Amino acid sequence: MDGSGGHGELWSAMGSGAAHRRAMLGGMRVTALVDYAVRSGLELAREHPGTLTADAVAERQKLPLAYTKKIMVKMRLAGIVAAQRGGEGGYRLAREPGEVAVADVIRAVEGPLADVRGEPPETLDYPGDAAALQALWVATRASLRSVLETVTLADLASGQLPPPVGGLIDGDGAWHRR
Q1: Distance separating alpha carbons of residues 65 and 54, to the nearest angstrom
Q2: Which member of 20, 33, 158, 167 has the lowest number of beta carbons within 10 Å of its beta carbon?
């Protein structure tokens, strides 16, 4: 969670922007790659069970085509999308939209949801009074999972978040940047 644009970053449903720009949510940074990947998955969920070309996904979401193509390759390698060649070619979800969690998409394009300096938090060893940091980072990862593993591409395509997750946005300060 070092903010360097690597692992440990959340996704954002914020609007498009330059590939190098990051959206910020309360101090957590979301890379353009994660934002674009989730938006690409959303388009494929809307089209399911049909196919879309990378060009069509990029055009619909106003994404850079080069990023979209890279995202599709990474999601194909992760088993989230399947590629179809030919005149009716393109990409389609390899599973039902309700079976693809946002966490799956994030892991496909960036790796683990949360790590510290590139290491899983459970492998860290802090001296003395700092030992509680390991538990903090593990709890942070669990918190991310509780949201990102619950929300699916089907949820996003329907425009509705599951009740436990939707309830989080109604909490005090949820919409305030701190």
Answers
A1: 7
A2: 20
